[in-house]
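Predicting holo structure, iron/sulfur cluster bound.
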Amino acid sequence: MIAKFLGTGNLGTAPRSATLLMAQTIVRRLTRQIRIGGVPVGGGAQITVQSMTNTPTADVAATVAQIRRLEQAGCDIVRVAVPDDASAAALAAIKARIGIPLIADVHFDYRLAIAAAQAGADGLRINPGNIGAARKVRAVVECAKERGIPIRIGVNAGSLEKDIVKKYGGATAEGMVASALRHIELLRGFDFEAVKVSLKASDVARTVAAYRQLAGATDVALHLGVTEAGALFAGIVKSALGIGMLLAEGIGDTLRVSLTRDPVDEVRVGFEILKALHLRRRGPEIIACPTCGRTRIDLFGIVARIEQALTASTLPITIAVMGCVVNGPGEAREADIGIAGGDGVGILFRKGRVVKKFPEERLVEVLLKEVAEAEKSMRGEAIRSKKKNDRPGE
Ligand code: SF4
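Done. Tokens:
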């Protein structure tokens, strides 16, 4: 089940380091494609980044506001919890006001899954371990078929079926895979193939082992994640390790980073993981020096302000933010654009060459202006090339 869907690092003018990288290009595993709303998942489609809202779903205004912030950060698909009838009923109003596909997350009550699908959800996430008897699953499947929407089978180590826990001596990776395969077969038995699967455990080793085993046993699209990953530091490390290891092996079609934080941070971390592996790029890559005894500016604060200001930017460039004017430009000579400052002076450099000097307090302002101009010219370029392509006979 391996096909040559390569990572998308732009290696056009390849220096030696890039040549080495090319030799390590990730070959993605080919899965069966499904569509969630208009967004393809699997089958060589670009890896999508998902998140989940943490507002009460029945509070339409708050949920829509959060989803719009997620959209701005680049979130491709969003999931909302549907714990009751009011939440299911709210989906239609939410969907009408957002621009990305909406997935309903349902536990225990199959009738809620049906209500969510009927309210217009673009996909369902159910945990077969707690949705109940096969006839209930069948009712959900029939509704999904009618609406033409896919289902994610969300296997969770914490809620595996009792017989599987008994057979495998606990909630093991093997047990999680057995549960997933059982439910893939169950849905296939109802003539339903529009499926993706997630296998989540809160520890990295078990999560990775389970996905690896399942990837060898089926061609369904895989949704990656480490569940209950935790607060910022632990969550980022666990997710980067678990999701990153699998992606590096070509496993995974869509992902969600779980953090006990604002979900916008989940999206940012998701894109950083993809960016680090050269699998997908969205927006600038911001690099910064670690600071040292030569640093005379508040580099931590400056980097945070720049990151915050560029959250919604889609400009595909590398920006360096460096702690001193003497070594900064040279150390960051591979960056497209950079700033450095110290002792009252700020500099702007391109590919290591200083192009402008200004008072140090204008560092952030000058950089953001440069980025805004580059974005404007990128948009102009895109419009010109579209017009050229649209012209008949050319
Ligand atoms: S760029 Fe300057 S401040 Fe930053 S680590 Fe290098 S020498 Fe130190």
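Residues 22 and 289 are 25 Å apart (CA to CA).
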